[in-house]
Please model this.
Amino acid sequence: MVDWILRGGDVIDGRGGTRYPADVHISAGRISAIVPSAEPADAAHRGEPVEARILDVTGLVVAPGFIDMHAHSDLAVLSDPEHLAKVRQGITLEVVGQDGLGYAPVTDATMAAVLDQIAGWNGKPALDYAWRSIAEYLERVDAGTPTNVAVLVPHGATRMNVMGMDAASASSEQLEQIREYVAQGMRDGAVGMSTGLSYAPGMYASDAELEHALAAVREHGGYYCPHHRNYGSAVIESYGDCLTLASRAGVPLHLAHCHVNFPVNAGRAPELLAAIDEAIAAGDDVTLDAYPYLASATYLASMLPGWAQSEGADATLTLLAQPESRARILHEIEVTGSDGQHGVPVDWRTISISAVSEQENEWAIGHTIAKLAAQRGVAPGELFAELLIADRLGPGCLMAVGNEENMLAVMRHSAHTVGTDGILVGAKPHPRGWGSFPLWLGHFARERGILSLEAAVQHATSRPAARLGLDDRGVVAVGAWADLLVFDPQTVGSPASYDEPTLAPTGIPHVFVNGVPTLLHGERTRALPGRAVRGAGYVAAAEATSMSSETPTPKPEEPTR
Model:
């Protein structure tokens, strides 16, 4: 039986080929037929009763749903059944567990620490947080989510499980414990491992420690996704270290939020891209993701030097409160460039507050540190320290440090995929969480013509699917999962801005996840058809020999919460 027929549109299949007119049929969660418009609408189903719902998509494009290769929706997919930020963009699959910091695998102590550390990314929504392993987290996803979800093993969390926030080198025994956490995460269904090498505690890990952990990733068919050590003063060298490490470890490499930022690096993207091309020519498997905005976003405390974060949040707050240690911290941030600030002395005019944990600190949201300091008649560094203390390290921030020439060069590259890096909490979050994909299609493809529309779709669909090892997602093809997006090529775009970051995209009326509409005529349905997408190393608990990268087939009539 056919559940849906998307009739009268043009198909962009995600592989880069020219669009063509066709009807797309959906049955039991998958694409069951693609019927060229010149043929009778039921040609592929002669002899079958066609009881489908017909969706007229005349004048629109039917494309694969978008794959967000860098998502911070770890908690949002469980706590927010609407998830409008991602659903309205046409996103049907998100990869979480990014930047070495995530919520599985964790101990009780690590869960508490991570919740505090990255509250500026994800907040602390009302969940029970009872899961500890990646298997348990993905079981939560399988209960029904707005999008499909894949997960990376966050290296920093595994290190925290073993060593806390200790800055020391891992012992032989600790190396084995970290590696086993990674290996079990891969068996639980992770698609790879992420690192956060400018965030504590990942910043304390040696390359030898990372290579030891990556052996487990290699053995289970995953990839390495680094947030590397230095996006500022040593950015090209730091990217080079990632290329070298992945090649030596024998794992595919996916460079997270691959931007070449800060004024000191203007015009240097070609150096990075040449190094990537050289690695690919030598046989290495390299991809990257980038979001189409110039500002970046993170949590404010990430700017602190590594030594100030090595004993946990309470110790960090004590260091900020003591005059001598505060002076040392601010000297490193403002004068020499701290490791947390990528070795570049901060310009407080470029750092604005996007979110806070405590209501009494909302006065800071939407303003730069420089402006707030001037209003209060204090030095910017003092304002920074006092705000971190008052909000217990909770603020999120935006950093206006991008370079358009570099960004365009990266986004044109054949290794590029799209990742929102979307931080969805706070009163003034980064608009990338609401607008990356429609901005990519509307502004950069249609208006600026940096790529054809077909190529732009490929960057957002089949290319990331290939990185994830999925041949039945990211394409409009018979037998593929019906993760589909319907958009108007003339109007698709995003009005979201830094002043109004959560404005809804335009030109995206319909979205399907596993054959079930999550957006219909521009309105969010109540459906939660998303499921876990598990990696190649997955070993089912009940079937030790079963290996799978597929999700269960959701039923169109499946109950929603």
User: Anything to note?
Assistant: Residues 172-187 form the longest helix (16 residues).
